[in-house]
Amino acid sequence: MKGFFITLEGGEGAGKSTLARHLHSVLTGRGHQVLLTREPGGTPTAERIRDILVQRSEENLSAQTETLLLYAARDVHVRNVIKPALAAGFVVICDRFADSTLCYQGYAQGLDLNWIQNLHTQILGDFSPDLTFLLDLPVNEGLARSLKQKQNTNDAREGKEDRFESKDISFHEKLRQGFLTLAQQNQHRFVILNAQDKSEDVAHKALAELKARGIFNAV
Ligand code: TMP
After folding, report:
1. Atom 19 (ligand 1): residue with closest C-alpha?
2. 16 CA closest ligand 1 atom index
3. Ligand 1 centre and the CA of 39: distance in Å?
4. Which of 27, 29, 150, 181 lies deepest, with the highest CB count within 10 Å?
5. What is the DSSP letter of 29?
6. pLDDT tens digit string along 170-179?
7. Separation between Cα atoms, residue 28 and residue 11, nearest integer Å
8. What letter does residue 143 receive in the DSSP assignment?
9. Structure pTM?
10. pLDDT digits (tens, 9 = 90+) for 139-170
């Protein structure tokens, strides 16, 4: 039996982690074996690479360097965690994946999209999510939510993860448009959810979508 690979994408403060936890709890309750993971991260080595990427530093990292680090982390994560779980029949829910690289490093920072896609193919072949939920919301709202979460968190590590949030508004606008473009180009696997809705409504729509696709008897 083969599992099912779901990714959650969107800009800052869109509510991906909340949706991930909700889907995990509902699907587990329905008897599915579910693995919840995230990128960058998901293994001890990849989490160390995450710290380099998401924490502010005096040193400037180019978008190309970020992408190489992201794909090093992704390779470790896919080989050691995601593929084995899918082979064992798990539903894998991953908070961000390769679409984030196309948007954060490509659309938002101008790195050549073909270069990123070629790197993906060399490292992971045509490995891709079965379904991607894009949580979309206006940039100002997402940034305000994200900064508030970081100020209120008790997790010292999470509080320092603001290297991307601190970029200017035009970065975040390009990011949002990048995600919407990818969703338009890959309609077979993308579902856009309005992240301004209440989190329960967003989760309800995501579960209804899984049911409509005949993937789970989830709602
Ligand atoms: P998170 O805040 O959603 O956990 O994601 C961590 C940060 O890493 C977020 O600001 C986006 C950034 N990121 C990239 O720039 N490229 C990527 O490919 C991924 C997966 C994340």
Report:
1. 100
2. 3
3. 7
4. 27
5. H
6. 999 999 999 9
7. 27
8. H
9. 0.95
10. 999 999 988 887 887 777 777 777 787 788 99
